[in-house]
Amino acid sequence: MTDPMADPADAYLDPEGKGMRLSRRLVLVALALLALTISVWTATRPNLNSIFLSARFPNPVAAISWVILLVLLLFQVSAKIRPFTIGIAFILAFPMPLYGAVGATALYGQFVMDRVPAEVSAVGAAPGRGPYVVTYRFVDGSTERGTWEYVSPYGSRGDANYTAPSVGTEVTVMRDPRGVLPPRTASRTEGTPEGTTSALLYATPALLGTVVLSAVIASVLTRRRSFITDSSRPGVSPAAAGDAPSAPGPSS
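Given the sequence above, the corresponding structure tokens read:
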């Protein structure tokens, strides 16, 4: 029996009461993953010609787009998921550009890049609070622009500043044999067997965020009723309504 108080427009736009169509949810997931990928990539590979982006910051447009799209994704999860759980998922997933960049840098540096000696042959202008952009000369005579990421000890205000490199300084750097990432100064154990544990620890938040994001995407693509659809209906609790099937109509 038709509800006489129901708005006919709602039945036309959403005849099954399930919210956004699957095809549109697929587009939403694809856009969110694209924004996240661009954010992680721009934070992992610094733009050596930009003072702001050379400091391992993600592209601001991509990062803001990621947060907006993540919120839209969380609105489309199953109505069975409680608001508290959705809030925890947001807290764990929204820093993924930072987590992803730190984890990618640690794992790529440990398992792909080479730990080699180099000499500073040129120093760029001071970039403020970011790392210095320098030119390294390697033992084979080749040169390559990269970053100087050594910092001074933490001061009384709890912050650290990048030390100023000097031309002729001999350092150990991490160099990418594939040329994907620019060379950078190496930490004490990076690229050695002792650095494996540290690399895995740095990557742990990114792995946790990936698990959370995968669960969110799975819920978005497989749910029957969305959280936002049920929460927008007066008198309907998303956690109580969940994905329960509608009551069967009267038999003929």
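The beta strands are 114-123, 132-138, 143-148, 170-175, 184-185. Try to locate this feature in the token string yourself.
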